[in-house]
Amino acid sequence: MSEASRCGFAAIIGAPNAGKSTLLNRLTGAKISIVTPKAQTTRARVLGIFLRGQSQVLLVDTPGIFTPKRRLDRAMVAAAWGGADEADLALLIVDAKAGLTASIRDIATKLAATGRRINLVLNKVDLVDRAGLLPLAQEAATMAPFEQVFMVSAATGDGVEKLLDYLAKAVPPGPFLYPEDDLTDLPDRLLAAEIVREQIFLQTRDEVPYGTTVETESFAEQKDGSARIEAVIYVARAGHKAILIGAGGSRIRDIGARARRELGALLDRKVHLFLRVKERPGWDEEAARIRAAGLNDPTV
Ligand SMILES: Nc1nc2c(ncn2[C@@H]2O[C@H](COP(=O)(O)OP(=O)(O)OP(=O)(O)O)[C@@H](O)[C@H]2O)c(=O)[nH]1
Ligand SMILES: [Mg+2]
Q1: Closest protein CA for atom 21 of ligand 1
Q2: How far apart are CA 136 and CA 247, in angstroms?
Q3: What is the reported pTM?
Q4: Which residues contact ligand 1 via a Cβ below 6 A?
Q5: Torsions phi, psi for 9 (to 5 deg)
Q6: Other Cβ atoms within 10 Å of 247 Cβ, number
Q7: Residues 150-168: pLDDT tens digits?
Q8: What ligand 1 atom has the least distance to the C-alpha of 18?
Q9: Where are the beta strands (DSSP E) in the chain?
Q10: What is the pLDDT of residue 288?
């Protein structure tokens, strides 16, 4: 690391489902943050780190910003704004297919009011007609003083190189804050819980994923190098428990099998995963559960 090194935080901000986590994974080249087709997948901030030239860029994936109802929701939205507040610069990511909705305008206005350096990232350009992108960018430019506008597809990688170059130059001069090999600060216990939650989001519908939280109860390294992981899935309703378990335990088996495979690949070792489903009405109003999800509870 020379005197010319740079290092800083860039927060990825936007509405739910805009592709923030997909972008974090794409920019870092690793699966760090979980991604599903459902809104409100990400619940807490997730750090993703990449090196480019003399720069270490600390990307912060955040929960989507929406109108919160539950205490959990309030903690999620607070985490998103906290991410923007603490960062050197922010990327406002907009789903180009969904366009400039009222909520995007609201987020852009609030983001501009923070006085942070902000950039616009129009994502999912693979889903829209190229001709429509320029007018969209021009209209967006009236919403906030964006430093730059990027048009990308986080899914295909289109346009991402330019964004990587920009970020490497945009972070302030300074020493690296993390070891050069680090990709994230996410502890393996939290990663395990997230990967299980990703499968729940992928394999259940309606209110079930939103009424569910996952906590790793034990994570033990075995003598043979494998990991033995026990996780508990809290559900808000008895009906959700039945759905998660499925006929003859088929659903929970499938969730476990896929999560185990994924974790095995991510941790690069054999994983033994044990899941337990527990009814816990009101967990989404419980400070301890909110903290266990990696969030600060804004109401205490
Ligand atoms: N076609 C296409 N799909 C994308 C792109 N980026 C993300 N997606 C999809 O959009 C959906 C949401 O992606 P996420 O990365 O989870 O979005 P998010 O903004 O993190 O969502 P929350 O965490 O819920 O706020 C997933 O199905 C992604 O595969 C893209 O560039 N093109
Ligand atoms: Mg996300």
Answers
A1: 17
A2: 47
A3: 0.97
A4: 14, 16-22, 35-37, 39-42, 63-64, 123-124, 126-127, 153-155
A5: -100, 135
A6: 7
A7: 999 999 999 999 999 999 9
A8: 19
A9: 6-14, 46-52, 55-61, 89-95, 117-123, 149-151, 212-221, 227-235, 271-279
A10: 96
